[in-house]
Amino acid sequence: MCLAVPGRIESIVDTGELTRTGRVNFGGTVREVSLALVPEARPGDYVLVHVGLALSTVDETEAQRTLEYLRQMDELGDATTLGPADTAGPGIAGP
Fold first, then answer.
1. How far apart, in whole angstroms, are the C-alpha atoms of residue 42 and residue 35?
2. How far apart, in whole angstroms, are the C-alpha atoms of residue 87 and residue 64?
């Protein structure tokens, strides 16, 4: 399963048209993310990120709702039984 996770842009690092990157905070974990597909995004905005690439901006209410769902899933992760196809364990594949 692939997930895009919302994060808050803390700062813009590189401003090149195709190399634009920023530091994005995912609930305490900060990663450098490509912002090339969201030229309108500014520090303080929330973006939806998949494998290190911001795909779109998202409003703060929706971002917080999604982050809460992900926290709830993580809490349930310890109680679930993994099938043979899922040997990596529960979690979020992210940037």
1. 10
2. 29
CB-CB contact of 38 with 54 (8 Å): yes
**93: in domain:** no
- Asked if residue 83 lies in contact with residue 67, where contact means CB atoms within 8 angstroms, the answer is no
Residue 20 near residue 14 (C-beta atoms within 8 A)? yes
What is the total count of domains within the chain? 1
Q: What is the pLDDT of residues 14-69, one digit of tens each?
A: 989 899 999 999 988 999 999 999 999 999 999 999 999 999 999 999 999 988 88
CA 38 to chain centre: 14
The answer to the question of residue 68 being in a domain is yes
Within-domain flag for 10? yes
Helices (H), 1-95: 60-77
- Quote the distance between the C-alpha of residue 33 and its chain's center: 9
46-50 vs 21-26, strand pairing mode: unpaired
Q: What is the domain extent for residue 68?
A: 5-77
